[in-house]
Specification:
The protein is α/β, with parallel strands linked by helices. The protein contains eight helices and seven strands. The longest helix has 16 residues. About 45% of the residues are buried.
Length: about 200
């Protein structure tokens, strides 16, 4: 059996769970572009941006991978069970533990290394100054992955603060989804497919 990673590169698309309508639109535009460029979409099946990214990938005929914090048979959050079933039919659900292992809040942070470790880059759609997307970006930086952050429209002070924080941390600012094309359009599998556990740490 082949996986999406055997035939195409991947990009992680992440962001706040409390995504704005404008952010959701930009997430869909971003995913549509990346799928047309030949990328598999990776995210964490979280509410908000994650769910939007997975759904958009499926809707435009692309492949998507959901990295879960626990057992793949126990979908978290429960509100995304139907979406998980859609992903399983055309993409992949991925987890590193079984139901026999204890579930705790730290699992949500631990899975970040897998999300970005499988990806050639991370695109942050919308985020505040703190939270899971910032932690994901920090993990990606440590793994040597490029992080891109979309510029907010300025109406949301939290999103502006998150954008500025990530840019100061080393993320590449992007004015609009279309502006990602020069970056990902010339990527020719720059990150070799994972061959050692070191890629996840």
């Amino acid at each position: 059996m082949t996986s999406p990673f055997d035939i195409r590169p991947a990009v992680a698309v992440v962001g706040t769970r409390a995504i704005s309508p404008a952010g959701a639109r930009r997430a869909r535009e971003t995913v549509d572009l990346l799928v047309r460029l030949g990328y598999t979409i990776v995210s964490g099946l979280a509410l908000g941006t994650g769910a939007c990214a997975h759904s958009a990938a499926i809707d435009c005929g692309g492949e998507t991978v959901a990295v879960l914090p626990g057992d793949v048979t126990v979908v978290v959050p429960g509100e995304n069970r139907d979406l998980a079933a859609r992903i399983a039919s055309s993409g992949s659900l991925l987890g590193e533990i079984t139901h026999l292992a204890g579930m705790h809040k730290g699992r949500f942070i631990e899975r970040n290394r897998i999300t970005s470790g499988l990806s050639d880059g991370v695109v942050v759609i919308e985020t505040g100054r703190t939270g899971g997307s910032v932690r994901q970006a920090e993990t990606a930086f440590r793994q040597g992955r490029s992080v891109y952050v979309l510029e907010p429209d300025g109406s949301d002070a939290k999103a502006v603060a998150g954008y500025q924080h990530l840019v100061l941390a080393g993320a590449i600012p992007v004015a609009s989804p279309d502006d990602l094309s020069p970056h990902f359009g010339r990527m020719q599998h720059p990150i070799s497919r994972v061959t050692t556990l070191a890629d996840f740490w």
